[in-house]
Amino acid sequence: MPDQTNDQPNDRTLPAVCPRCEHDALTTVADSPVPGVWQVFQCARCLYMWRSTEPARRTRREAYPAGFRLTAEDIDAAIEVPTVPPLAAR
Amino acid sequence: MPYDDLRSFLDTLEKEGQLLRITDEVLPEPDIAAAANAAGRIGEGAPALWFDRVKGFTDARVAMNVHGSWANHALALGLPKGTSPRQQVEEFARRWDAFPVAPERRADAPWQENSVTGEDVNLFDILPLFRLNDGDGGFYLDKAAVVSRDPEDPDHFGKQNLGTYRMEVIGRDRLAIQPVPVHDIAKHLRIAEERGEDLPVAITLGNDPVIPVVAGMPLAYDQSEYEMAGALRGAPYPIATAPHTGFDVPWGAEVVIEGVIESRVRQIEGPFGEFTGHYSGGRRMPVIRIERVSYRTNPVFESLYLGMPWTECDYLVGPNTSVPLLKQLRAEFPEVRAVNAMYTHGLLVIISTAKRYGGFAKAVGMRAMTTPHGLGYVSQVILVDEDVDPFDLPQVMWAQSAKVNPREDVLILPNLSVVELSPASQPAGVTSKMIIDATTPVAPDVRGNYGTPVKDLPETAEWTERLRTLLANR
To answer: Range with the lowest mean pLDDT among B246-260, B286-300, B314-328?
Structure first.
């Protein structure tokens, strides 16, 4: 069976969900300077950004590697680096 | 002649056969990163890579792997491209002694040619951004220098910091930044955030070849990277005043991005394939709001591939990590001959040293772990004799295989500090450390049977030259 993770679908319509966290609020961040070649999309929740011409392993939810996926819980639990310090007394 | 900008250095690389122009059209992903990744896999002397036909872009100019071989690193320091790693480190250490060299302020910086401000800022209009590794959360600026000042002492030139920190593009005018807590910019940010103030920053992209070297160097808090750049290039470093922040930035930069780290804000960042050969992230990190971008006409976008070593990153941070350790060790132990801290930013270090008395080499190993860089990195030290070249790994392996009696010569020290990015640490930031003493025991340490070493014959040096000459004249 061919390895579909290397397919380059170049689907320039806004996808239904984020490949990484499956959130459905996505925006188009950039269009190719040469019209119609690619678009750059971004997820409003996990901030993942991708170009429509990237391989399916980076652009398709079903091909996106399990090890790189994020959930809402992962984002909420992410630690701060560096931590926000207390405000100094004035 | 030192290089005042990236373009003049790229010209030299091309003349020296160390720049390869990719003339076929490439995809932004995965081609550019894969080609730069491959440059680290084709052996010694890999060239820088130049791309100007990138699908979908009209004016992309991308430079990769600029420091990505010993030949290119030597040329960056103005040395012949055949200079060995050990010779490069020795020359670097010699030039260090000229520090500080006062910078030279210049007007008419080429990046003043174009600028955008406020709501007109859109990084995608200016830079051909692209992803490096599969799991990266987005497109990164990973070879830029970030300038910031101490909010409590903003006029102190030495406390003005210039450092390389990974930055993820999270919007047309927004970046996430990783200020590791031990780094100088994190100190600036903490002071600003305690006051509830934004921290202004100036980010310079596409710099002359010395800036990436000094921006990744563990200097003291009040030591100026510009004054170190002057020492390394043997001439005052040219700086210019950035228009929005008033900060001192490299005169020859391709792009100068100015804005602020927003006070007390954190957003999800990463992951990003790091110098350890592993991803780190996603964590909540500070965010930069871009307010002005100045840039040369047709700017060159310089980036760096990093992943499983060796990559450009390893060449870039090899000598600039080895030299501070060498200087700090020699200050107390003049017996130290050479330091090779080129493995994963100094997580493993090889030190050659003479011995004052039995047990001395192990003490040198412990001291390496308590230097400023050692506290966060040096986790394994191999000590070798003064006649073993720590940059010659077959020699090092000979010393280790022949001279180490594991029960007495391997020391394991539990629960010590290391950078959180170290993948072996458990919990993150804490690790055991190891000293392997592969030096010959000296009195009163009388272990082993080392009385009769086989030395090179007295005539061998002459024959070495003779063979080289015969080979060269064939």
So the answer is: B314-328
